[in-house]
Amino acid sequence: MIANIAFGERERDVLASLCGKGVHWRELMLLYPGATFTRVFDFYRDATFIPLRPNRCTLSVAQPIEEVIQAINQFRPDIIVGYAGYLEMLFRTLAARSVRMHLPRLVIFGGEAMSDPGRHLITAQFGVPLIALYNAVESFKIGFMCEERADYHLHEDLCHVKIVDGNGKRLPDGVSGEVVISNLVNRATVLLNYRLGDVAMRTTRTCTCGRTLPLLSAIDGRVEDILHLRNGTFLHPMAIWAIFKHRGEVLRYQLIQHEPSRFSIRLVTTDEVSYQRLLPSILQDLRTLLDESARIDPSFHTRLETPGTGKFRAVVSMCRNDKPEPS
Ligand SMILES: [Zn+2]
């Protein structure tokens, strides 16, 4: 972790120039409760001396959107960091409801892909520059966008990235395929040729910013379904994950939203006894998060199949509604 942090200067340099402040900017992070990010920052705060830290504030994606907007207005961040899907819904809510929110100088997303309409909304309609960081909990820093805000420069000396086809054969630059990483700084958990589950391509283009770190382009990461709730708010799938994260007996879950207030929850647990034991508290936690009067049909499974596309979706919404209802 200490070896990794030293390379943060590369990213800090871009952030500083895009937000127009050299140091001490105000950074607001929208995360799920107990996110690895938070634990990493706690460790750095306790174990390192970093003289010029950003002023950081963390909010949960499980909080009601009104509270999040209010907290943003109070904290007045220069930079907002969050999951692509959540940020997109936040800005859609602002546009649809004409709510006033303090606008940051820069928005940073990660964790999943940002849709083109979402990108356009934030950059063109709200006029806020948008960049992404490419990180993974398994290996931390992988790539970062520069001032050009197009492709990702790879932290090639921290994490080697190669692109392979379905048979694991290396693909040439300019051809899109699966991202396979080898982490070069983890001494305890060595990752060699590890599939991240993302699709991207390496490019031979040289960047106008002058950085010579190689470029990765067109990352097609996880695309998660946002849940639009009956009361007009929305929920990011990471908020659902927070319910199961600490319940070790739950091996896999899938929440399906059939109607705004009708769900089914499919659970794979260690055995049926633990399923019966855990179910009442899981249902209560889900109702608290989703809707107290929601109908949630549970079912026990010994396995949940990954579809042919290879991407298992833990949260699926059958109610396609891209815009929150104006309130
Ligand atoms: Zn560049």
Task: Describe the overall structure.
This protein has 327 residues and is of the alpha/beta class. The chain has three domains: 1-137, Rossmann fold (3-Layer(aba) Sandwich), CATH 3.40.50.980; 152-220, Luciferase, domain 3 (Roll); 227-317, GMP Synthetase, Chain A, domain 3, CATH 3.30.300.30. It has eight helices and 17 strands. The protein has helices spanning 2-5, 8-19, 36-47, 65-75, 84-97, 116-125, 237-245, 272-290; strands at residues 26-31, 55-60, 79-83, 106-110, 130-136, 140-145, 152-154, 159-164, 177-183, 194-203, 215-220, 227-228, 234-235, 250-259, 262-269, 295-301, 315-317. The strands form three sheets. The protein has an eleven-stranded mixed beta sheet with strand order 2-1-3-4-5-6-7-11-10-9-8, sandwiched between helices. It has a four-stranded mixed beta sheet with strand order 16-15-14-17, with helices on one face. It has a two-stranded antiparallel ribbon with strand order 12-13. α5 (84-97) crosses α6 and α7 (237-245) runs antiparallel to α8 (272-290). The longest helix is centred in the C-terminal third of the chain and has 19 residues, at 272-290. It is globular and about 55 Å long. The relative contact order is 0.12. Residues 322-327 have low confidence and may be disordered. The protein binds zinc ion (ZN). Zinc ion binds next to loops.
